[in-house]
Fold:
Amino acid sequence: MDEVERVERAMIAIRRRQTKRTLAEDEPAGQAFDVLDVIEASEGPTVSAVATALAVDQPRASKLVSGAVSAGLVRRVADQADGRRSVLVLTERGQALVTDAHQRRQRAFAEAMSRWTPRERAEFAGLLTRFVDAMR
Structure:
């Protein structure tokens, strides 16, 4: 098995574990949670920003955002620079959910790397970040 196949298998295993809720106990599933991640990571996020970040069309992004709004995780706020535009903001509940998810994931990652040296952890972080950046 070559390196590319090993990476593919590892990525599939990660996705399956997330799907099985190993890393995502109380999170909304899949793209529903991705919306919260996009909003948290963006400055002045809009439905268009969500669509771009998730590589979905505008109607799909709008539906995902509406679901998050209905669930009380996101609210729409008028853009101060352009009142015709809405900016998406995490509610207190949405922010708490994202914060809890970060903490839970980071604990799982730290446990998985607990027997690694600091140098191995740093090298992995650098290579993984580089890999993700190259996938854009």
